[in-house]
Amino acid sequence: DQQVKQNSPSLSVQEGRISILNCDYTNSMFDYFLWYKKYPAEGPTFLISISSIKDKNEDGRFTVFLNKSAKHLSLHIVPSQPGDSAVYFCAATGNQFYFGTGTSLTVIP
Amino acid sequence: EAQVTQNPRYLITVTGKKLTVTCSQNMNHEYMSWYRQDPGLGLRQIYYSMNVEVTDKGDVPEGYKVSRKEKRNFPLILESPSPNQTSLYFCASSFADRITEAFFGQGTRLTVV
Known about the structure:
- The structure holds two protein chains of two kinds.
- Helices cover 0% and strands 56% of the residues of chain A.
- By secondary structure, chain A is mainly β.
- In chain A, the strands form two sheets. In chain A, strands 2, 4, 5, 9, 10 and 11 form a six-stranded mixed β-sheet that branches.
- In chain A, β4 (32-38) and β5 form a beta hairpin.
- Chain A is globular, with a radius of gyration of 13 Å.
- Chain B is globular, with a radius of gyration of 13 Å.
- The interface between A and B is medium-sized, with 23 and 25 residues.
């Protein structure tokens, strides 16, 4: 059973607008939540993480929000740029990693 | 240059023929792990290792073996590959106190016929 879920396989956004990618999880014992970005023919690259004791973490254009009561996290990218077009995986971890199925983001120039 | 190197990048093999996919990192990372990526299933962790001689099963360990004799290397062994192990495999590494910030290799696309 999938412990981390990304229910939107794809998302299209105009350049300059906000991209919001969503993720739900089932296990309340996860320590950290993170987002990875993946381009075709490359391995995933770490983007941003958040500890389970926080509800927001910001890094430049990227902000991750964590809602523990809803077991939900989201990644906001603002402003979106064409170079942000990639597949985004959310993940949760203690010692073991659990990844979502990914959301393919397309930023339209 | 800091990197995680997997070999081979592409491999086609036959059912039952033992194979090893190598993974090496040059960042002195303690934590290393293997994943497989399949359509509709995302990335699933196969095995991970917190340090030399310490390995643990991930979510989908069946049909795989690993070893961690040296800090830099973490090979993935398929003793008797089957077609359901056809997948895209990624190795990753990180410092043990920052396992969220993992560096991934470029992937190995394995086809078992």
